[in-house]
Fold each of these.
Amino acid sequence: MAAYEAEAPIVVRDPADAPAARIGRFAAKLPLQILLLFIGVLWLMPALGLFLTSLLSPENFNANGWWKVLAHPHLATWANYSNVWNNTDIPHALVLTAEIAIGGTALPIVIAASAGYAFAWIDFPGRDWLFVLVIALLVVPLQMALIPIFTLYNHLSLFDTVFGLILFHTAFGLPFAIFLLRNFFIGIPKDILESARIDGASEIRIFLRLILPLGLPAIASLAIFQFLWTWNDLLVALVMARNTQPITVSIFSQLRQFGSNIDIIAPASFMSLIIPLCVFFAFQRYFVQGLLAGSVK
Amino acid sequence: MEPPPAAAPPAPPSANVFRRNAVAIGFLAPAAILLGVWIVYPTVFTIVRSFFGPQGFGDFKGIDNYKAIFTTHLLLTAIKNSAIWIAVAPAVVTAIGLIFAVLTERIRWAVAFKTVVFMPMAISLFATGVIWHVMYIKDPGQGAVNAGIGAVKSWFTSAGVLQDGAPSTPTITGSVAKGFVLQKPLAAGGVAELGLTGIPPDAVPAAAKQAVVPQTKPGAIEGVVWRDFSPGGGKAGKVENQELGLPGVSLALYDSSGKKVQSAKSNDDGTFAFDGVSGSGYKVGVASSTFAAPYGGVSWLGSKLITPAIIIAYIWVWAGFAMVVIGAGLAAISRDVLEAARTDGASEWQVFRRVTVPLLAPVLSVVFITMLINVLKVFDVVISIAPGSTQSDAAVIAVQMWRQSFGGVNNFGLGSAIAVFLFVLVVPVLMLNIRRFRREV
């Protein structure tokens, strides 16, 4: 069917595809094209503005709008970046952020995959009720946990530790992760699992050898979500840490002197968003899939 | 000595069920522990804690903390701001997402457009705040938003050449706000001398030349507008050596009834001319637009506009989400249905309004509800755009929860009550999610 459709235009020349008709359609769409182009430029501008601001020396920032750099490229300098890299704690904050984000991504995926498998394929009493509980936890605001966990962390010496932050992100990532993976796993054909069980494979073996490889697309979506979520967190780190500052907290502490610290704030902010942006562009497809699975389902 | 499977007596069901349950517990235990300790226990703790004062569990306060939420000025501001957020952000994000999704269906470079609009989703709301802080700088020379508004405004009105000025002689009356008028009536062939003082040397336009009194010309009224001040002082009302003409000044000619009949701009030496004039009783004046202040920029980050400003930044981030989800819903709509409506003679707007939107209703509501939950918890973008003195004006519920609990006051009782308030607001969504799931099963 699909192949047939692909061949059709070659065999039968659609009169609507004549050059004149094509130009006519193009002209009819021109206002729309221009409007969307304008919106696209508008949408790019704020992020571009931050990047160009990060290239201006403080004197040039105070004397010029960042858009002047487009006409006068000689105004741009990497000096702010080398200063931030060599003279501030931003590089250290980036390393900490990476540790938190990687831990906070890997741990919930492992835990949620095993729970998702149990919810999808092991028949135990109270399964649906427990899953309803997970769905209920999906929307519990982070704010409900800040005070008790802050108190708890002070008792357990988890306050101000990377591990404490990872555990917090893991817990609050779990409801969505379990929900997403359970829904994906349940779509795996039953025959595959049944035949593996009849062959005598243990549940662990089925999970590791069958479910995980088959669930890879969903796991990839989840990994991107969780990575962006933990990398971009501000609130949890602001409350649960003092010296273990990820990049967002580190920049936040400079924000009050916005005008005078712009040569640190702008490049540091750009450095903080370039890694999630790369992850996003590299795995955009999985990101969109996860988004649709999470919201439309 | 294993018996062949066929002959094996079926294992007692209880043992089998027990084994299966043990396996299930093994798979679920890590998740159960984390969810229990980090979400379920804190939820109970926070609810209980909200009935106690700052000192701890010895300090029972009943519902005082909840009363405080609705009586404290700061918290009422936060509730009001959250209400604005809830009323505006989800609806606008959904509407923009719908518009973008429908429009991009008609262009070939939809993927590029969607990527651009979707990109801010990867940027943290914190960095979004920094980005828009730069966009919102008040000086139109630095803040792009005000620069854009200023550029649009300059198509309609331009800034005047002078900031200030005063008449040098009593024959000229008026003010900077209303413009000045030379009270001496003139007839065709007359010359108007408009001397101004109170203009600092550096405010005189760079092109200015020595002022010149023009020769009279029949059928025209001519004149000069100049800075009536020379280093020695000079004589008021008289054009002297070293007194500069004022270029670019807007002048108006009024007839005897006071109606403006002509306008002109002065030359570099301050001279100007109104041609084709006959009769008498005219007056000449300096128009107030000469003194129009340059566009100073809107104070986006001031206490009045801060919440709308932050909501715009938030929409910039989330519109892409709405567009992508609604776009997927749109792709699932059968082309035949739309084509059928078009064949029946429906206009594009009717197709959109009567067919597309109703068919998309489930997707639109999902996007709207998702945004509703997100908006309730909004935090990062608020404190990063408004880190300083305007934070109280911009604060939403989640921000005040943090400030009351960890921002120096450290009132865990009140903080817990605010958290519970936030939680109560999402409970309807929670019920909705559960209902939807139970219908599926």
Note: Residues 2-77 of chain A form one domain.
Amino acid sequence: MKLLITIICLATFLSAGKYDKVKITEELSQVLVYHKGKAVKIHRIQDVKNHLTGSYAKISRPCPDKCIQPISIGNGIETIGEVEVVEFVKNQVNHHKGVLVDARPKNMYAQETIPAAINIPFTISNNNVAIKSIFEILGMTINPDSSWDSSKALDVVVYCNGPWCEKSKTLIDAFLREGYPAKKIFYYRGGFQMWKSLGLTTVKTK
Amino acid sequence: MRLKRLAVLFLTLTFFVTAENNITPDKSSATFSVNGKSYTIERVQGDNVYLTNEFSLTSRPSPPFFIQPFKVSDNVETYGELEVIDFLEKERGVFVDARLTSWFQKSNIAGSVNIPFKIFLSDTPQRDKTLKDLGATKNGDSWNFSKVKTILLYCNGAWCGQSPTAIKALMKIGFPEEKMKYYRGGIQSWQLVGLTVNTPNGASK
């Protein structure tokens, strides 16, 4: 009996994703990641009748405040989409070569976010001391002349609420101002709204 | 007295700030004309408008639907909503709805013309006519695209392969990548950021 259960579990595990009806890309159905020490599978909601509901289905957003953002935030920062974010998590984050950053406030991150993301709220943008200690965590080191050595700095993907959210830009601008190299920063403009609109996995804390 | 006046001023300002769902801080709407017809694009007003139509569906079966990469090709620029609006306002080329006609007739983005992606996929008189209308010339079997108009293509959303397929087919016959733009978000993202779409009766929804 025990053996049977083991076999079933193993078979389910091995075939997971293979028969997904709703895939991420032609080659990719799922990616396993760690979120706060727990294994999470990033894939897509398989129910083809599922609708986006709740606050991320909201389309009326006041501007000034939640204005539509340009496709590029300039300064040599590359914009990416969901496929690139998933590949980034698979190839960089899972191998400790990159960090996925949720730039939204702490309470929003705690409520629901993208698996494997860490939280660096945009509100620290004016706090140089905090930014410097974050840089060190991200692999920046200080040269003898007290300038930054970015040769070992991790790649960073930054996102916030959606294409109408400016917080990613605020945080990225602060990173650039303090000396993080532009070629190691990527902007996921679609953000949490587009992630959810494609039925991609999120993690929630109650 | 002065305090009261300040309070009134503050309330008025707050009203103006919260009452508007602008496109960008200094732009509340965009008006432009295409083929002699005038269009206005704006964001949906109000506080609690939600997307509930079929574009709120999250999961489309694969195949044929997969999430599309951010870029179709290195030199085909990907656009967002502001770049689409700028393209229309400055009349920088032809805005192409690459979906099948049945989709286009249900709803589309103001200022777009419908050229279903299938037209670009094979060597047919219909394709040749479409390309010639866009300014390309054909000499025997070879195309000359030096005077072709810039085209900006979109389809249903980031999960839709129709506009990328059209772009790739055009690249194969030598259509310059620099003259093609890709609005990846498509009509789904357009609506998710609250921009108005055209419906057949001309009313925007």
Note: The mean pLDDT of chain A is 93.
